[in-house]
């Protein structure tokens, strides 16, 4: 019956049972009104939580257990509701195919192709799951000997936030997929440490041509050098570089002239 208990927990969290009881005990009808759930079906859900030790029922009033009050009701500190939402909405459905995966030795193709809502659920769920590890790493390693941190596949930036919170002199860079970065930007904007997590810069130095593909003159001439010695090389225009940057999630900032015909295109991680 473990899968039933898990699903009961997911639903109770999703409909707001623990959150609505954060301010104190409620009778069934009051809790039903607060959550917008019919009393009959809410009783089924709430009584299941009582049997699992996450709610208590005293004098016909439901109240959060100590664990639910600490981790599922929105209290300051670790909030496990995003993790439950991730397990329910994204992870749980895939486990229906466990037998097929075991028999065939293949996982679920395309799992990480999220839409915007699913990406939010995934990223915040993983952050909630890994929050204890982020705090432990920030405390357990002396980051004070460093000046900059690059967090590759760093999710929403929760590890960087935990580390920078303890080390005021550090700056960090988060390197992630574009969809995750969209969630991370919103997350970092809410934290003072977010101002110290700067975007990576990309500098492309070449004889970048203008739109006419004739200026600077050395650039089209050099195309012959590439043709002769490389076979498939050529000179490129600035607008071609702009397209590459857009396709690979970089945001162009500017192009600056250097010495002679060379110039540098400066881009920032989008």
In short:
By secondary structure, the protein is α+β, with helices and mostly antiparallel strands.
Q: Mind telling me which CATH architecture of the largest domain this is? A: 3-Layer(aba) Sandwich
At the fourth level of CATH, the homologous superfamily of the largest domain is Vaccinia Virus protein VP39
Kindly identify the CATH topology of the largest domain.
Rossmann fold
Number of helices: 12
From the alpha carbons, calculate the radius of gyration and give it in angstroms.
27 Å
- β-strand percent reads 15-25%
User: Largest beta sheet: what is the strand line-up?
Assistant: 1-3-2
The span between the termini is 46 Å
**Backbone structural class:** alpha+beta
Helicity, as a percent range: 40-55%
């Amino acid at each position: 019956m473990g899968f039933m208990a898990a699903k009961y927990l997911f639903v109770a969290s999703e409909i707001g049972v623990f959150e609505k009881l954060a301010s104190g005990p409620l009778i069934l009808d009051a809790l039903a009104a607060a959550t917008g759930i019919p009393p009959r079906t809410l009783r089924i859900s709430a009584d299941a939580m009582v049997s699992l030790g996450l709610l208590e029922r005293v004098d016909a009033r439901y109240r959060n257990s100590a664990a639910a009050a600490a981790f599922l009701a929105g209290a300051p500190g670790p909030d496990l509701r995003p993790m439950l939402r991730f397990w329910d909405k994204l992870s749980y459905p895939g486990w229906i195919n466990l037998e097929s995966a075991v028999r065939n030795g293949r996982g679920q193709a395309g799992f990480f192709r999220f839409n915007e809502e699913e990406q939010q659920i995934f990223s915040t769920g993983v952050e909630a799951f890994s929050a204890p590890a982020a705090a432990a790493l920030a405390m357990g390693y002396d980051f004070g000997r460093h000046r900059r941190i690059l967090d590759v596949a760093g999710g929403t930036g929760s590890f960087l936030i935990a580390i920078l919170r303890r080390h005021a002199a550090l700056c960090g860079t988060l390197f992630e997929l574009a969809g995750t970065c969209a969630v991370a930007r919103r997350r970092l904007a809410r934290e003072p440490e977010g101002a110290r997590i700067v975007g990576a810069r990309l500098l492309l130095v070449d004889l970048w041509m203008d739109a006419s593909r004739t200026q600077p003159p050395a650039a089209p001439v050099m195309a012959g050098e590439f043709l002769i010695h490389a076979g498939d090389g050529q000179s490129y225009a600035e607008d071609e570089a702009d397209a590459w940057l857009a396709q690979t999630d970089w945001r162009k900032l500017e192009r600056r002239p250097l010495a002679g015909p060379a110039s540098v295109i400066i881009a920032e991680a989008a």
